[in-house]
Amino acid sequence: MTLLLFLAQTIRIAIPYLFAAAGGALAERAGIVALSLEGYMLGGAFGAVIGAYYTGSAWIGVVTGVWWGIMLAAIHAVCTLRFKADQIVTGVAINLFTVGITRFLLQLAFDSSSNSPRVAGFGGDNIGGALALVSNPLVWLGLATMPALAFVVYRTTFGLRVRAVGEHPLAAASLGVPVNRVRWVAVLGSGALAALGGTYLALDQHQFTDSMTAGRGFIALAAVIFGRWDPVRAGLACLLFAGAETLQIRLQAAQLIPSQFVAMIPYVLTIVAVAGVVGRSVPPAALGRTTD
Amino acid sequence: MTASVGGPTAVVRMNGIQKYFGAVHANRGAEIEVGAGEIHALVGENGAGKSTLMKILSGMQAPDGGGVEVGGRDVTGWTTAQAIAAGVGMVHQHFMLVPTLTVAENVVLGREPVSVATFDRDRAIREVEELSKQSGLIVPANRLVADLSVGEAQRVEILKTLYRGARILLLDEPTAVLSPPEVTELWAVLRRVRDTGTTIILITHKLDEVMAVTERITVMRQGATVARMATRATTPEGIAKAMVGRDVDLSVQTSAGSVGRGKGLGDEGGGGTGLTVRNLTVRGARVEKAVNDVSFTVSAGEILGIAGVEGNGQTELLEAISGLRGVTSGSIRIGDREITHASVRERGDAGLSHIPEDRHQRGLILEYSVADNLILGQQHRFSRSGVMDRAAVATNAAKQVAAFDVRPTDASLAVRTLSGGNQQKVVIARELSRDFIVLLAAQPTRGVDVGAIEFIHDTLRKARDAGKAILLVSAELREVLSLADRVAVMYGGRFVAVMSRADASEDALGPYMTGARKAETESAA
Asked: Rg of the Cα trace of chain A?
C-alpha cells in the first residue's frame, strides 16, 4: 500500500515536469533554448485559473491556460526568430515578465496579492490519493506526452525537420526547409506543452498562488538535459526527479536528511550528466545560435 | 568574345549581377552564360565573388542588381525552394549535412516520402539506395553522416541534388577535401551525370581540374567577369593571368624541380635544432595510438613535409606538438627546451608558431575584427596592466594587412566577412609576425586560390631561409613536393618513409601513402 501511495504521489509530482520537459525537448531539438519553460508554466497556471474561475469549467481552464502559454511563447518567437534577439536574454525576460504580469493581474482580478479564489478542477472533492489521480484526464495526457513527442520527433517529417533545424539550420535551409517556420511551430508547441504543466498544477490545487511554479520549469529543463534531449529519457528523468521529491516529503517527518539536500538532487544529477559521467551529453549543435 | 560561348542553348544566363555585404561589394556586374549539358568552370581568386554568384543562382541569396535567367525564364531573386524545384542543385564548399541524421534522412530532407502522415523511413532508404546504384555514388544509406569519410560525405551531397532532380549542378570547390583517387572518381561521376544531360558548373581555382574536365571557362576578378574562354583554346598560364591580372609563375606550385636550398637536406645535420620529437605516442579520439612511436627532427632552416592521406595521425601529431592534445609517451623539444607537457602559452613563448589546419575552428574567431584576430594569443603584448592598447593593435593591424595583402584592407571588419584566402592570410600574418623558432603549417593553402597560394608558399620559403624550422602537413602532395626539403609519409600513425626531396616524387611516395609499402627500416629521421 505504501508503495502504491509512493507511486501515486510520484506521478502527481511528475505530471507538471512531464508536460514542461516535453515542451523543453521540442524547443531545444529545434535549436531554441528552453529557458522560459518556467514562465510558460506560470502563465499557464494563471490562465487556467482565470478561465476556470469565470466559466466554472476546468476544461475551459485548460484552453485558456494553453492559450496563455502560446501567447508567451509567441513573444519569445517574435523576439528570437523575427528580431534575432539572444535566446537566453529573451528567455529570462519572459520568466520575469510572467511573474510580474500574473501578480499584477491577480491583484486586478481578485484583489489579492497572494492567491486566487478557489476554482473548479478535475475529479471530485472528496476522493483523495490514487483515485483522484486516475480521474484526472490531465494525468493521462501528461503520461502520454513523452511517448507521443518521441513519435513526432523520430517518426514524422516534422520531427525530422525539427532535428535538422536544431543541428544544422543552414543545411536545412539549403534544401528549402523553412527553418524559421519549423522553429515557430516548435516554440509555440513548447509554450502550449509547458502551460499544460502549469494548468495541471493550478487546477490540482484549485487556485493560483503567486509564483506557484516555484522553479519547476527549471527542473523540467534539467530533466531534458539529463535525458540528453531524448523525449523518452527526459520523461524517465522527470519520474526520477519526482521520485526523489516524494522521498523527501516522506522522509521529512523522520528528519533523516535535510530537505534541502533532496531538493538538490535534480540539479546535482544534471550537473553529473552534463559533465559526461553517464555517457556523452551532446546538445543540438545549433542550440541557442541565431541564424539568418 | 561572347559569340564563342553559350550560344542559343544557354541554360543559365546571369547579367550585370550586383551584390553587397555591408561595405563589401562582392559582385560588381558579374556575368556568366552556360550552355546545356556542358561542364563549365567558374574560376577566380579568393574573394572574386564566385561563390556569391553561385549562391544567387541557387536562390540562397538575392542579387542587389542584375538579372538571372534559367532555361530562358527570368528567375531573378528566387528562393532556394524555387531553385530546387526548377532543377538547380548546389554542392557547397562546406558540407551542408546534418551529422546526427542518417545518409538517407539527409538526402530526402525537405522532400520526405510520407505514408499515413508519418515519415516513411524504409522508402527513403530504398530510394536512396536505388539512386546510389543508378548514379554510381556508393553510400551507406543507413549510416549516420557523422561517421562518414569526407569522400562519402561529398557523394551524399551530390546525391541530395540528384534526388531533387537537379538538371543544373553547381559544385563549389568540390576537390578541396578529397584524396587523389577520390578526385578521379568524382570526375568520372560528373562526366556520367553530364552525359545524362545535366549541366555542371564547377567553382574551382585548381587549374589542372579546369583543364581536365571542363569545356568552357568563366573567369572572375574582384566581383566582375573578366574573361570567357573555351578550355581547348587556352592554357593554365592563360587562365591564371586572367584570374590574377598579371603573369603568374605556375611552376612554383605545380611541379618538382624547385628543390629547397635548406641546410638540413638528407639528414638532420646542418643548422641548429628546431623541433625534436622522440618516440611520440598520442591517443586519438577513436584509436589508442593515433600517433605511434614517431621520432623526427626539423632543423633550423629546413622544411619537413609530411605527406599522407588525411586521418593517418597528422592531426593528432600537430595537436600534440601545439599542446592541444595530451601525450601518452615520448618527448617534444623546441631548441633545447623541453615542452612535452608545457601549456600552449609556454610553447608560444618557447618559440612555437602554429597555422592550424582548420582556420574556422582553431585559427580565427570569426566574429572578431581582423585587427583583433591579428593579436590573438599575443594580447599580453598589446596591453598595459590588463588594458588593451587599441592604438598599438591598430598600428599592428595596418602593418600586417599591408604586408600580407589582406583584402579588403579595412581591419575593423569582422573576419567572417572575408573570403577564405584572406582569412588564411590573417592567420599566417599573425603566426609569422611573432618571434618563433618552429612553425607548424597545417594545410596552409586549403581553400585558397592561385595568387594566394603563390604568396603563402613564398612566405613559407622566406621563413625557412631566415632560419626557421618548419613542419608542413598537407593533403596536397604537390604542395609538399614544392616546399619541403625532406618528405615524410605518415600512414597508420607511423612515419613509414622519410626521404630527401631529391628522392621524393609522386610515384615514390604513392605506395607509402596508400599503405601498399611499409617502412623497411624503423629508424625514421
From this structure: 19
Which residues 274-293 in chain B show a CB within 8 A of chain A? none
| Closest chain A CA to residue B161 | A175
Residue A269 touches partner B, C-beta closer than 8 Å = no
Nearest residue of chain A to residue B97 (CA atoms) = A171
| Beta carbons of B99 and A167 less than 8 Å apart | yes
Domains of chain A, start order: 2-274 (1.10.3470.10)
pLDDT in tens, B127-175: 999 999 888 888 899 999 988 877 788 899 999 999 999 999 999 988 8
| Inter-chain contacts counted by CB atoms under 8 A, chains A and B | 69
CB contact under 8 A, B80 and A175: yes
Tens of pLDDT, residue by residue over A240-265, are: 999 888 887 877 766 677 777 777 87
For B438-486, the pLDDT digits (tens) are 999 999 988 777 778 888 999 999 999 999 999 999 887 888 999 999 9
In three-state secondary structure terms, B110 is: coil
Tell me if ipTM is over 0.90: no
- Following DSSP, what letter does each residue of A228-249 receive, concatenated? TT-HHHHHHHHHHHHHHHHHHH
Instruction: Give yes or no for B385 touching A (CB within 8 A).
Output: no
Q: Which residues contact B197 (CB under 8 A, 6 or more apart)?
A: B36, B37, B167
H helical segments located in chain A: 2-29, 37-55, 58-77, 87-110, 129-134, 137-155, 157-167, 169-174, 179-205, 216-226, 231-252, 259-274
Instruction: State yes or no: pLDDT of B311 exceeds 60.
Output: yes
Q: What are phi and psi of B337, to 5 degrees?
A: -95, 130
* Domains along the sequence of chain B with CATH: 2-87+167-248 (3.40.50.300), 97-163 (no CATH), 256-262+270-351+437-525 (3.40.50.300), 367-434 (no CATH)
Tell me the sheet residues that pair with B491.
B494
